[in-house]
Amino acid sequence: MSADPNWTTLVDAAVLAAALQHPQLRLLDARAAPPTAPDPHAARKAYAQGHLPGAYYADLDQDLAALSRPAQGRHPLPHSAAFAKRLGEWGIDPHTQVVVYDAADGSMAAARAWWMLRLMGHGRVAVLDGGLAAWRAAGFAESTESPAVRDGAAYPGSFDTAEVVDAEQIVQRLQQAPGWLLDARAGERFRGEVEPIDPVAGHVPGAVNRPLGLNLRDGRFKPAAELRAELSALLGAYRPEQAVVMCGSGVTACHLLLALEVAGLSGARVYAGSWSGWLQDASRPVATCA
C-alpha cells in the first residue's frame, strides 16, 4: 500500500480487502450469540467454519467482558490489565490499524470491541460496515485457519474511566429534561411490553429510545448526514458530549455510540452497566410506556 490505513469509524469491505496484506493491520472477529440463543457457543463455532483471513476471535464473554462482576450488569468491562494483555496476544500495539467485524451490522459485538479499544486510547480502530455478510456478498476470501496467539508485550494503556458512566451518575441526572440518555434496545423492551433477558421490563425514567436498527439501511450504517439529522433531533438542546448511551448490558449501546461518531457528533459516553446494571438496586426507579 502507498500509505498506512487510518480508519477510525467504518471501513468498506472493498477498501479492507485491498489492504489485507498490510503488516500493521489486525482483524478481530467479534461475532457473538444473542443472549437468548440456544447455543451460547454458536458464534465461536461459526468463526471456526470461516472468517476473514488472519482474524483473531474476540469472545464477548471472555475477552470483552468480565462475567465474574455481575453487580455491574451482564457484561461488565474486564480489568484494563487483562484486556491489555489480550491485545498484545493479538499483536496489537499503538501503531496497529485494527478492524473489527461481526456477522452483519456491528451490534454483536464489533462496536463493543471498537469502543473498548478507544477506551484504551487506541484511535486507529474501525468496524467493517456490513460485517461478514458484506464481505461474503462481495465474494472475498475466507479462511478456517486461526492465527497463533503472540507473545508480544501487553498493550501500553488502560481504560479511560472518565468515558464510562456508572449508575450513580445516571441517578444524579434523572431530573434533567429528556434527550441526554439514549437507549438502544428494541422498542418493545424499552416500553416495558416484553423482557426476554432481564428480570424487570421498562427503562430508566427520562431515557429516549433509539433502537439500533434505525442506524442502518440494508445492513449498513446510514450516510453521515442522515444520521446527524436524526440523532441531533433526539439530543435536542444537549451537546453530544453531554449525552450517554445505554442498552441492556453495554454492548449494543456501543453501536449507537458508533453511529454518533459517524454522524460527527463526538463525545457521548457509555453507561456500561446499562439496564441490567440499573436493576441491581431495587430502589432505582423504573418507567414503562404502558
TrEMBL record:
Domain of life assignment: Bacteria
Q: Which keywords describe this protein according to UniProt?
A: Repeat, Transferase
* All copies of domain Rhodanese, residue ranges: 21-144, 175-287
Gene Ontology MF terms in the entry? thiosulfate-cyanide sulfurtransferase activity
Gene3D superfamilies, from UniProt?
Rhodanese-like domain (3.40.250.10)
Q: Does the keyword Transferase apply?
A: yes
Instruction: Provide the protein name.
Output: Sulfurtransferase
Q: What is the lineage of its organism?
A: Bacteria, Pseudomonadati, Pseudomonadota, Gammaproteobacteria, Lysobacterales
